[in-house]
Amino acid sequence: MSVRAAPPPTRLRGRRLLLARVVWVAVAVTALAIILFSVPSSFEYYRGVCTAASEVCVEQAVGQPTPEGVRALQDAGLSARSYAILHVAIDKVSQLVWFTVGALIFWRRSDDRMALLVSGFLIAFGTVTADPTAANTLISSQPAWWLPVGVVDLVGNVCVVLFFLLFPGGRFVPRWTRWLAVAFIAFFLSRDLFPALYARSPALEIISLLVFVGVVLSLIWSQVYSYRKASSEAQRRQTRWVVFGTTLAVAGTFPFQLPVDLSLFAGDTPLTLLLLRTGFAFSFLLVPFSISVAVLRSRLFDIDVLINRTLVYGSLTATLVVLYFGLIVVMQRLFVALTGQKYTLAVVASTLLIAALFNPLRRRIQSFIDKRFYRKKYDARKTLDVFTMRLRDETDLGTLSDDLVGVIRETMQPEHVSLWLRPDTTPVRRRQTTSPGENPAASRSFPG
Length: 448
Hints:
This protein has helices spanning 14-47, 54-60, 67-75, 80-109, 113-129, 133-141, 146-166, 177-193, 195-200, 202-229, 233-253, 270-284, 286-296, 303-339, 345-373, 375-393, 397-411, and strands spanning 416-421, 442-447. By secondary structure, it is mainly α.
């Protein structure tokens, strides 16, 4: 059995630790200042009305209501001021959650260089890089903020690349990926320092898009390679937490990025945009939460159980929803064909049928997921169930010993198995007489 090399120490000491903490505090104070000082400019931005063409408003004035949108707000009993307050509140709550999680990691693990990188990533990426709208409004109202905003945005971009290339072990795996980090950081520097150059050249825009896709694919590949080749069990558990939270965040934000037309508000009304913004912001908060658990509390929770339950109940919910609405549509059409009118009986019958299908369908989905994604645990559980059944009928000690060793070898796969039976300590007058030559204590050893 191969033994993985112990990861190199990631603790900082002396001047390096002091310098790292000073840099972190400088970035954190700047990010917090951007969050707070952008409140008035964000409020004025969302309270404004975009009078340009709808295509221009969608691309250049995201979140601003149009004149038709203002009328829709008034019909719903809201003013443009109330809409702006709600929008700003959602933005600031989301940014402050990212910042707070990053500050918590810094407070608990400020002497760990990987924890410092993760903390810097959260405070910079969550406040500016993920959604620069508030920072851009601050620059528009006070141009002197362009340098602090640009620095925090650059830190966010750099920390994203370094986080996915270094997490969780704190080293580049394989080593040549450090040159990928250098190339990607150089790309982000050029894009932030010369934005007009990229805007004027369609060719550079295409190259920028291709480089971005290459960055994403490279980071995913690096995490997969590190997980399979270089991570310990504890580091794999941390990786699963991050992947779990990021996957749920992307899956949760995906529906809110699609064009939605609510039946109550036609088109892209401000309320529709506010709903999309709320769903996107709060779904994306799964990223800092999962990272914080991975860094601080990964050993306290079994991520495999959480993933298993998510797969089971997510699949179950989707299946039941499809079946429910499908049954309603089919039964309503059947009633219309037979009687010429619709009945609420279709809804009642569909509900009762779904309730009856819940447990059988859940068991089937659980069994399928266990077989497909947790085969070793599924086989181990089946083996233990068979052994439990044999315990009820078997009375021979030697046979039971062989069966027990076989179960351990099959489920745990150790290198060596040794079974020791404790001697019988019952007083002589109460103990059953043993035959000559029989040893009351036995030790059985088996090769793994």
